[in-house]
């Protein structure tokens, strides 16, 4: 055992070690920078400067020669921390990111610069010190043994480019290496000046996340574009006018100016682009990265792509327009390109189902893309959408696609929990901790340990429980009611709501700090009325589902009935459609649904003359009952004489039922 004096000698040495370390803070928010300075100085470090921009940081690096840099990502000026990071690696200065931005694309970009750590704001003093300690230790070891921690992207690309493998294979590997840093769904590499259309390279990202090389001829066929049109369009390469990021308005303008971009983006549902050019022996080559997400590209990506311009040159020289590695002859594009197998998500003929989620609309694809990005991480996800849009299904898919898939996914409907039992349900209780607690209970968080917890209708959680939840998120530990110890837990949190949480925060019903913690990665699910093109697929899906389950002989639906469904507004979204199809199948004789009785349809319909055949589902009965009570109470939900009191249920529960059942205020009047 160490004696007390021996221990204090160690901490004295540790402090001496720190004192030798000069740290530069690169942070544009003065308060945060100052806080950091105070924490570091208290711990014995020397802060040699604070820089709010990359320009200032470079100046201070030259004059102060820092040993370490704490680096924010978005800074004053047009350069980001990630731009600076590239230069720091070259200068051999170790750095740690400190940022509130945990957007997946940015994290990937940050990762590619090989930082010694990434601290998410807000953080505790202890977190900063531990991270710095570990980073310093790792850096010392690296210096001692002279080991680069992992190959840089450039080294990876160099290595792939040199491989004696077919061009298509190398391009796939290069795309996979580039994608985490500059995400794309379609990469077009073309010789922009002088122009030669035969040498275009088109890399498409498939549904499984892999890449495929597709030649122009197959592309034209898939896009239904004539060779003549293509030749005319293709003579005009994209004129980027010195710009590199094309989001929103700029992307729409680019589409108008470049018919080829328009055709590509229509076919592949592309919404943004990042363009860069490299020069090789007097010839210019354009790399156009397209993405299905709008507003995806930021100056972080331009910074990265500029850092990797040498890698792009290698791609041009050694892979795309170079010599065949085996025969040594120049690579004619037509020979190196394989026939495509297009099974990507957006191909209506091939993919209609993404992990059990049916739909092929653009809006749903945007949600899938986000889901794919976030699923493998531990990031908290907030799913937003009206009742019945499939939020729970999305939560299940996130869990299924995550490394936690073999551990439990515990679902909690916050609206259905009785007020008095919420805390014990979520965090558990010890025997005798309150009247009626006859046994000890393991809470939902503990049940989900190692896996994920899905907190549905999080907007309904009362304020007291919100405080506790916040603590769990911050401390990653729970305390059972009546227990006097805490337990560490490792749970990924997925939440969902059909409420406008920002409004809830503004009106004091939801804690702002909790909202920030949960809203790290929001996924919005579109209402069915905004993606009616998915109705035929969904109908087929439900006919198949209930055909298998029940005794109905229905296997299809007539065009006329389908048209009726597409004309309806779907206030209850997919849940409403599903129940309607299930019910209609029960009532249909033969194998084809030819008519659908839509809610509110006029008496001219097929079934209303035979009311005695009409079977109401439990949900419909519940809906009718609530509606009648609401009418009786003149729409009053809360308080004395309100519908909740008459129905003897908490008003929060009633409110969520009203939403779930698609009851609108207009129906009550
Ligand atoms: N894209 C989809 N493909 C197939 N079935 C779907 C899809 N989306 C939702 N469903 C089905 O629709 C029903 C409602 O979905 P879910 O319960 O996930 O919605 P929700 O948004 O969580 O609703 P609420 O907010 O009311 O809890 C479920 O039976 C689900 O299986």
TrEMBL record:
GO biological process annotation, one example: regulation of DNA-templated transcription
Pfam families: AAA_lid_14, Response_reg, Sigma54_activat
Domain Response regulatory residues, every copy: 22-136
GO terms, molecular function: ATP binding; DNA binding
CDD domains: AAA (cd00009), REC_DC-like (cd17534)
Domain of life: Bacteria
Domain Sigma-54 factor interaction: 357-586
UniProt cross-references to InterPro entries, sorted A to Z: AAA+_ATPase (IPR003593), AAA_lid_NorR (IPR058031), CheY-like_superfamily (IPR011006), Homeodomain-like_sf (IPR009057), P-loop_NTPase (IPR027417), Sig_transdc_resp-reg_receiver (IPR001789), Sigma_54_int (IPR002078), Sigma_54_int_dom_ATP-bd_1 (IPR025662)
The keyword Nucleotide-binding belongs to this UniProt entry's keyword annotation: yes
Key words, A-Z: ATP-binding, DNA-binding, Nucleotide-binding, Phosphoprotein, Transcription, Transcription regulation
Modified residues (4-aspartylphosphate): 72
Name listed for the protein in its UniProt record: Response regulator
Species this protein is from: Pedobacter petrophilus
């Amino acid at each position: 055992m160490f004696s007390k004096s021996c221990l204090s000698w160690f901490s004295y040495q540790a402090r001496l070690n720190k004192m030798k370390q000069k740290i530069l803070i690169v942070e544009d928010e003065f308060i945060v920078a100052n806080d950091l300075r105070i924490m570091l100085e208290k711990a014995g470090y020397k802060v040699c400067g604070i820089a709010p921009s990359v320009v200032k940081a470079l100046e201070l690096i030259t004059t102060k020669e820092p040993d370490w840099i704490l680096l924010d990502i978005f800074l004053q000026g047009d350069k980001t921390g990630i731009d600076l990071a590239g230069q720091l690696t070259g200068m051999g200065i170790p750095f740690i990111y400190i940022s509130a931005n945990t957007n997946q694309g940015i994290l990937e970009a940050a990762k590619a610069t090989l930082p010694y750590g990434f601290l998410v704001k807000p953080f505790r003093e202890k977190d900063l010190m531990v991270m710095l300690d570990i980073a310093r230790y790792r850096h010392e070891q690296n210096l001692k043994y002279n080991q680069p921690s992992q190959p840089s992207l450039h080294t990876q690309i160099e290595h792939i480019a040199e491989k004696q493998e077919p061009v298509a294979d190398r391009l796939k590997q290069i795309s996979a290496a580039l994608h985490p840093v500059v995400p794309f769904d379609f990469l077009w590499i073309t010789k922009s000046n002088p122009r030669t259309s035969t040498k275009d390279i088109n890399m498409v990202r498939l549904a499984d996340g892999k890449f495929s090389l597709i030649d122009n001829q197959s592309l034209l066929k898939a896009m239904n574009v004539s060779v003549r049109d293509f030749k005319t369009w293709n003579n005009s390469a994209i004129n980027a006018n010195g710009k590199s990021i094309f989001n929103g308005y700029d992307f729409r303008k680019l589409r108008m100016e470049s018919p080829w971009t328009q055709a590509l983006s229509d076919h592949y549902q592309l919404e943004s682009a990042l363009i860069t050019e490299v020069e090789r022996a007097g010839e210019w080559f354009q790399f156009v990265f397209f993405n299905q997400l709008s507003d995806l590209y930021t100056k972080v990506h331009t910074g990265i792509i500029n850092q990797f311009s040498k890698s792009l040159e290698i791609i041009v020289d050694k892979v795309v327009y170079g010599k065949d590695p085996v025969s040594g002859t120049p690579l004619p594009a037509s020979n190196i390109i394989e026939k495509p197998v297009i099974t990507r998500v957006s191909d209506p003929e091939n993919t209609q189902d993404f992990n059990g989620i049916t739909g092929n609309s653009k809006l749903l694809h945007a949600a899938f893309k986000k889901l794919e990005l976030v699923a493998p991480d531990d990031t908290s996800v907030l799913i937003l959408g009206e009742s019945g849009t499939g939020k729970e299904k999305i939560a299940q898919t996130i869990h299924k696609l995550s490394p936690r898939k073999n551990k439990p996914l515990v679902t909690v409907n916050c609206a259905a929990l009785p007020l008095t039992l919420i805390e014990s349900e979520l965090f558990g209780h010890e025997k005798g901790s309150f009247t009626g607690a006859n046994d000890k209970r393991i809470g939902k968080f503990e049940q989900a340990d190692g896996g994920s917890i899905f907190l549905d209708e999080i907007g309904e959680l009362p304020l007291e429980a919100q405080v506790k939840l916040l603590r769990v998120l911050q401390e990653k530990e729970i305390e059972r009611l009546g227990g006097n110890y805490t337990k560490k837990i490792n749970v990924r949190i997925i939440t969902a709501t059909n409420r406008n949480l920002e409004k809830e925060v503004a009106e004091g019903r939801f804690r702002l700090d909790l909202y920030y913690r949960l809203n790290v990665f929001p996924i919005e699910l579109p209402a069915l009325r905004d993606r009616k093109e998915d109705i035929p697929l969904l109908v087929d899906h439900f006919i198949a589902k209930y055909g298998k389950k029940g005794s109905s002989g229905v296997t299809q639906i007539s065009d006329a009935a389908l048209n009726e469904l597409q004309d309806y507004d779907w206030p209850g979204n997919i849940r409403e459609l599903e129940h309607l199809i299930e019910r209609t199948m029960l009532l249909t004789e033969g194998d084809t649904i030819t008519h659908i009785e839509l809610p509110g349809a006029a008496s001219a319909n097929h079934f209303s003359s035979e009311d005695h055949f009409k079977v109401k589902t439990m949900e419909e009965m519940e809906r009718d009952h609530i509606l009648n009570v609401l009418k009786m109470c003149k729409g009053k939900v809360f308080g004395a004489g309100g519908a909740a009191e008459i129905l003897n249920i908490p008003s929060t529960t009633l409110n969520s039922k009203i939403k779930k059942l698609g009851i609108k205020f207009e129906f009550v009047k």
